[in-house]
Amino acid sequence: MLSRAEIIDEILALAPAGDFGPNPEPVRARLWGLTSALIKSYDADEPITVDPMEIYRQRAVPLETTRLADFLRGKRVLVTGAAGAVGSEVVAALANRLPTGAICALDLRDSPIPEGAENRVVPVIADIRDLEATGKVFAEFNPEIVYHLAAQREPGLAEFETAFTISTNITGTRNVLTLCDQFGVDICVHASTGKAARYYTPDIYAGSKKVAEWMIAEEAPSLATKIGMVRFTHIAENSIVFDDFRRKVDAGVLNIHEPYRLMYVQSMSEAVALVLNTTLYVDDGEATLVTVGDLGWPLDILRLALHTIAVSGRDVPLCFMGLPAGYEKHTFLGQLDWSDPCKTHPMLNALESDDAHLTEDEGMMISRPSHPSVPVAAEIERLCADVESSDVDDRAVHKKRLADFLQWGCRATFDGADPAQRMRILTWGCDPDILAREGATVQDLGPVVPLLVDSLRGAQFDGARQGLNVERVTRTLRCLSEVPELKPMVDGISVVSGEVATTA
């Protein structure tokens, strides 16, 4: 009897990158046999017919109804992206559970009106990329509170609709901020993504949302409007992945990216509560960053795929197609703060963890977003102008332009951070022993490593005084110096341990 790992290895060998070869029927038959064996293996742990998403749907963050009712009573509220999954639920919560005044539901398409709220909810069709059209909505409605959820949110689609994604997620957000300030909006809450916590990402969707975060973080202190940002992760009731799996089962083959990938999931109830509760936690000055307090255990994507096949009742083979554009095979572990278990949060990076604290009920984590140490507004203007002036189908140009900007911003973010914390991030992410266990190399981690190392060029560290593990730092630097492009940067870093100064 094959082990689970052996079954997966044979599937990978039979249909590399999802290719069944010139004689597909015998391959399909064998793949179904292996898929069936894999289903039985997982079923032995827990019945495979149990929906693995259900436990996430039951999660909740308490909606602070009493305080929100007092604060929002009679106020005019505008929700962008109101026809979307989260946006429509935010409108419903406002209409059914809170005593707001009129609610403007803005989207590119018709927004649903909650039953019984026909006299309070005003649906409006407008494109946030169009400053003039959106400005007319603000002028006519004069909102006091804005919940900005409009976005192109599908990572896979974003890789094809590059111009639309960048212009919606960046230009559209800039327009909303401008209008909030112009029309004296009290509070604006912006919906972002946990993927924006990465220092750098090649993903068009996450990259565009990260640029929007940088823009908000820079502009917030100068705005009359108080700004909050909410980072979501995958929402169980609006699962792009689950919907995709069901479509593939209907098509006869379920291909997933890789066998050993996990994803964090939260409930729609959590998402709505995060958006609305953030209203109560914004303050003057810097933007407030909010995410769920405890995400719990991530979901095994392979189990979800096998569950989808099992409940279909069909003989649908499983295969692995590899990672598409916009996905990273290896995670840079310096993304997280490993100095204290209380600081390790998948939706916050290690430059944001020091400011983080839980709300009293521990439902939400509050922090400040990391951002470049130099002004970004003019560079963002140029980025958006370059994309808007190019051919809408010239995806390679858009991706290159966004990637270049993100690398520039990543480096500028590192430059503004405490050098000792940057060194910790480097050792957490590039410790050779950990990389070996992960089957990764420094080069697999992408541009973030040379950007981080170069930001430390010329730095001098007193290991004991700065709380660094000198042995681990030295080991990491020695490993990095073996990479030719990194060696000149590493040679400029010195670490003092007692009376001895060492360089790699």
TrEMBL record:
Tree of life domain: Bacteria
Similarity remark: Belongs to the polysaccharide synthase family.
SUPFAM superfamilies the record matches: NAD(P)-binding Rossmann-fold domains (SSF51735)
Annotated organism of origin: Cryptosporangium minutisporangium
Name of the protein in its database record: Polysaccharide biosynthesis protein CapD-like domain-containing protein
Gene3D superfamilies, sorted: NAD(P)-binding Rossmann-like Domain
Segments forming domain Polysaccharide biosynthesis protein CapD-like: 77-325
